[in-house]
Amino acid sequence: MILADKIINERKKCGWSQEELAEKLGVSRQSVSKWEGAQAVPDLQKILKMAELFNVTTDYLLKDEIEGEPASGSSYEEDKEYYVRKVSMEEANAYLDTVKEASPKIALGVLLCIVSPILLILFAGGAEVNLISERVATAIGLTALFACIVCAVFFFVVYGSKIDKFEYLQKEDFETTYGVDGMVKEKQSRSSELYNKLIVTAVLMCVVAPLPLIISAVLGASAMFILCMVCVLLAIIALAVYIFVSVGCVTDSYKILLREKEFSKESKKADKVIGAIACAYWMIITAAFLAMGFLADAWAKSWVIWPIAGVLFAGIMAIVRAAVEKED
Fold first, then answer.
1. N or C: which end of the chain has fewer CB within 10 A?
2. What is the CATH number of domain 3-62?
């Protein structure tokens, strides 16, 4: 709770209007209105006077982390045994701007990973019906696959490193300075409607993505046509995932600064365990994908590992998080 909210709460508890409070403080009603709208900050003398009028401590009014019912006439003593980082308004804005810039590029990297086997699948199908030689099909398909992966890694490294500078926000406990929470909530409120529409669109894309493949299979289409529908499915899923990742990064940045839900202090311990497991999990999945391709020569089928791995990953992470939080 920020100073503006505390002034509103304490004024209402006393049953005063903005005009009445302004009169007691010797200021205009517009000044009180600006304080309560977080558009201005009262000077020290006015804060001392408000603490006296409201019968609360100045610490309660000034420190965002002190919430709930203030102890009248008591002093606030910090009992923290460790240093807690203070996140300033400039630092919070820099973090939000960095995430907003980097999230589309990281999402593009994920999209490239999903669409990377499309040419391999198409050319492999063409080789089966003698439209192209198997050697040429494999060469072109693998070249396209690894080119997509290289580009994706580039995006992950370059733009991921920009966000990594603020990694402490996800891993460490911190407090925000005056006005930061209000600023973040305002940006969150302004973007929520658009982001909700984008998420709904992405969900609908995931729902309709398998329909072309199902319809072509039911109608008895040729194997080549069915492979084309598999590629269409991957392309639609890739676009949906692009939306999920780009929107999710931004919405998560708001939650991180507000310490909400999975980014609360209690959840950060679970995240450390989950991060280690996730890293090992995707290394194993990648190794399995490459093994199926190189050792079993099953590039045309190995793509199925990724959607299956994605579904399993969500379930595994949910179980791990529940287990870790239960221990706490």
1. C
2. 1.10.260.40
